[in-house]
Specification:
Number of strands: 0
Distance between the termini: 47 Å
Largest sheet: none
Helix content: 55-70%
Order of helices and strands: HHHHHHHHHHHH
């Protein structure tokens, strides 16, 4: 799918009129590669708001948020962070690590960015670096809050799935907000077939697993 198709999909999803939709101008100077990477992230982001599609004011506010984010200087650390995540999904690890390092120069104290960097290091074969960052975050967690979800993500990268699930269950106990992304976060893909992961998803998203009587056709009253 080319850039034009991605832009059209975003416009249609957010129900933005032609005269108000101008993301193409915002990203006009970017390379085609960067456009596709970022627009894929935008689509992934806006799909989280599918339940609000009928609310035009809300969708418009999402569009404004997206537009202002894309207007940020392309070399901004946050942009590099999301480009890094996009490259990881394409298994382009060298490029991903380069973008993460740019982001961390300005946001080196962001535990979320550090954890994402550590996950990428692990799956790209740099387990020593990943384990070093993991230890750094575990030590830091004794002094300040470090997201249990982020710690779990590093263990996933290291293929230590039992520890990853232990930390996700801790995240559930502490009601970590990042758990809302558990089913859609590609970082957690390797856990999808794990029974404990599936059980956790049922607790977090009960409505998606509800096959109870009230929805069965034979139980609908005439």
């Amino acid at each position: 799918m080319d850039t034009s198709s991605k832009l059209s999909e975003i416009k249609d999803f957010l129900s933005i009129s032609d005269d108000k939709f101008d993301l193409n101008h915002t990203i006009n100077t970017w390379s085609d590669d960067k456009k596709l990477l970022v627009l894929n992230k935008v689509l992934s982001f806006i799909n989280n708001f599918s339940m609000f599609k009928d609310s035009r004011p809300f969708m418009n506010s999402v569009y404004i948020c997206v537009k202002k984010t894309l207007e940020i200087e392309p070399e901004h650390p946050v942009v590099n962070f999301f480009l890094g995540r996009a490259y990881v999904q394409q298994t382009r690890y060298r490029e991903a690590m380069n973008h993460f390092q740019v982001a961390l120069k300005s946001y080196g104290d962001s535990t979320n960015m550090l954890a994402t960097f550590a996950h990428a290091a692990a799956i790209s074969g740099q387990t020593g670096l990943s384990e070093k960052i993991l230890k750094q975050l575990l030590d830091l967690s004794e002094k300040m809050y470090v997201s249990t979800y982020d710690v779990a993500s590093i263990y996933v990268g290291l293929k230590d799935y039992n520890n990853a699930l232990d930390w996700l269950e801790k995240a559930f106990d502490e009601k970590a907000y990042l758990l809302i992304y558990l089913q859609s976060d590609p970082i957690m893909d390797d856990l999808r077939n794990e029974e404990r992961y599936q059980s956790l998803c049922q607790k977090i998203f009960p409505e998606k697993f509800d096959t109870g009587r009230k929805t069965s056709p034979e139980n609908v009253s005439n």
